[in-house]
Amino acid sequence: MGAAKIARDISGRKEAEVERERLLREAQQGVQLRDIFLSVAGHELRTPLNALKLQLYNLEQRLTALPERGMVEKAQKEVDRLAALANRLLDVARLAAGGFSMAPASMDLVELVREVAARMQEDAANAGSPIRISAPVAVVGTWDRDGLDQVVTNLLSNAIKFGRGQPIDVMVETRSDLGGVRVRDRGIGVAPADRERIFERFERGVSDRSFAGLGLGLWIARQIVSAHGGRLGVEIPDEPGAEFFFWLPTN
């Protein structure tokens, strides 16, 4: 009787293990299909968007000094937003496939932050959130400029989006052999339980109905910073808002 029970237990464990392996294979196949879809969708979106951008540019040149020019400019901004989403889908597909590559070169982190802030100054002003920068003369390291541009752009975009029309402080700092950036907003903040979850793929800290987005920006930013041997995270201050930061080795 005991031998029969042992045999049934062994058989049950084997069946459970087979079932777990089957479910794991299906999950892996599902992830692969999703990543393939993201890559195809990103590529397919870019072609018509590039053509539309060109047509809008040509139309804008013909409408110089006419009232309709403003409508074209608004359309261009929407196309740029869609193009950014398409590029983000491609970024996710490349990172998932291990295809992320960097071109490290000597660069100044302060210069990059000021450049990104100047580029986003209009959006920040429209949101009522002026960007205030505190930085030393220079913070130099060997990093991938395009990748860090994407990280800083993402952090500032989130601060503008969730900042509730309050000032945004950007601090560029050095600590020993590290260079870093801190972006402090005074908006809706981050719940303590979400401190790590928001850095996962397709995860968001707010309702989809309240704020648009794919939930990819912070995940991509963390992958880029990690590829540099650095760290990206968020601190939750006592006052309203959140402070996102990243630190990179300078040598």
Can you give keywords for this protein?
5 helices; extended; about 250 residues; two-stranded antiparallel ribbon; Helix Hairpins; Heat Shock Protein 90; 2 domains; single chain
Whole-Å distance between the termini? 69 Å
CATH architecture of the largest domain: 2-Layer Sandwich
CATH topology of the largest domain: Heat Shock Protein 90
- Largest sheet entry: 5 strands, mixed
Describe the structure.
There is one protein chain. With 251 residues, this protein is α+β, with helices and mostly antiparallel strands. It has two domains: 2-96, Helix Hairpins (Orthogonal Bundle); 105-249, 2-Layer Sandwich (Heat Shock Protein 90). It is 55% helix and 16% strand. The protein contains five helices and seven strands, in the order H-H-E-H-E-E-H-E-E-H-E-E. It has helices at 2-62, 68-96, 109-126, 145-162, 217-227; strands at 105-108, 131-134, 140-143, 168-175, 178-184, 231-235, 243-249. The protein has a five-stranded mixed beta sheet. Strands 1-3 form a two-stranded antiparallel ribbon. Helix 1 runs antiparallel to helix 2. The chain is extended. The model is unreliable at 207-213 (pLDDT under 50).
